[in-house]
Amino acid sequence: MTNPVESWILNHTWFDICGLQGGFTLGKREQQCNYYIRRTVGRDKIVVILVHGGVDSVICAALFHKALLQGDDSSRVQAIYIDNGFLRKDE
């Protein structure tokens, strides 16, 4: 928990000075990502995503899969695992 002074400083900086708005939710961000992916890829293209086991590439592949899934057809997104040699031992 932040104290009232810290809270005021953060709110003043983010909202008053930077002009940010407080309506951010993960659901809204996911909707924005889905819209952007659909608009950019179009309806007839296949996407190839290279996944190396890190969080960023796996989340990206999952977002693309969810945005481009059409009925039971999940073939528009092809995720290919790349072993880059930098994973932890035994992973």
TrEMBL record:
GO CC entries: cytosol
Domain of life from the UniProt record: Eukaryota
**Mind telling me which InterPro entries this protein's record contains?**
GMPS_ATP_PPase_dom, Rossmann-like_a/b/a_fold
Species: Daphnia magna
Gene Ontology molecular function terms on file: ATP binding; GMP synthase activity
Residues the entry annotates as binding ATP: H52, G53, G54, V55, D56, S57, V58
- GMPS ATP-PPase domain boundaries: 24-91
Q: Which UniProt keywords apply?
A: ATP-binding, GMP biosynthesis, Ligase, Nucleotide-binding, Purine biosynthesis
Question: Could you tell me what this protein is called?
Answer: GMP synthase
The top of its lineage is:
Eukaryota, Metazoa, Ecdysozoa, Arthropoda, Crustacea
